[in-house]
Amino acid sequence: MTSVKGAVNEATQTRVVEWIARAGYPVSGLLHLLIAYLIVRIALGFGGEADQTGALETLARSGGGALPLWIVAGGLIALALWRFAESVLGLHPAESAKAHHRDSPIGDRLKAFGLGLIYCAVAFTAIQFALDVAQWGKTTTAGLSARLMQSGGGKTVLVIVGFVIAAIGAYYVHKGATRKFLDDLTVPGGRFITTLGVCGHVAEGLVLFAVGLSVIVATYVSDPSKATGLDAALKSLGQTQFGTVTLIAAATGFAAYGLYSIALARYSRM
């Protein structure tokens, strides 16, 4: 294990590797801006799919061919690998030449590992679109959820997944409301970046929390159709009394997080 940590530590000390990882932030920011655009379309009655899949589908139809999708996948994989490095060494390994000897809270390592898995999942979806097999992936995912609900062990897995998504959402809300995200920056922040960070984290956290709850409820009633993702959760919000206003607010939050992510390419602590 020591040799693994040493190898990971040596890799994260390389400036080239660090800047490749930083390139993942504007990719994440672009996806959030596309989701914000899709949410506005839904709010105005034009329809669409307001989630990572919808954003990637928008890229696939942009006329640039598969190249933008491969760029997205590459950027997210680079960012995922950096998160996995943080799960081994602790947060911000590039800041210490002796990061492999540093103790780091297990909670920080688990959060880094979870984010790495999320980036990998979105990157995998981007690759599916690049290879034109995205619809097959959707069918497989839906079928997997239905099969898991047919057994006690499968339901347990889904409930755990739901709780994890809800917990991540709650953490994002807390991180935004308390401005804890400022600890991840190499600069004091300033009014503009702070506003983007607060709005973005809170908005994304609330939506993720709703998605996590929907997975738990769907598992409890054994109805896969109720295990809604980001798109369905947003559309459910749009059907409430102040749906249009709520969706515009959500779009603003996602756009804010997108711009904040782009700023992280320059100001994130690594």
UniProtKB/TrEMBL annotation:
InterPro entries: DUF1206 (IPR009597). Residues 23-88, 112-179, 200-267 form the DUF1206 domain. Keywords: Membrane, Transmembrane, Transmembrane helix. It holds the Pfam family DUF1206. It comes from the Bacteria. The keyword Acetylation does not apply. The chain crosses the membrane at residues 29-47, 67-91, 112-131, 151-173, 193-221, 241-265. The keyword Membrane applies. This is DUF1206 domain-containing protein. It comes from Mycolicibacterium rhodesiae (strain NBB3) (Mycobacterium rhodesiae).
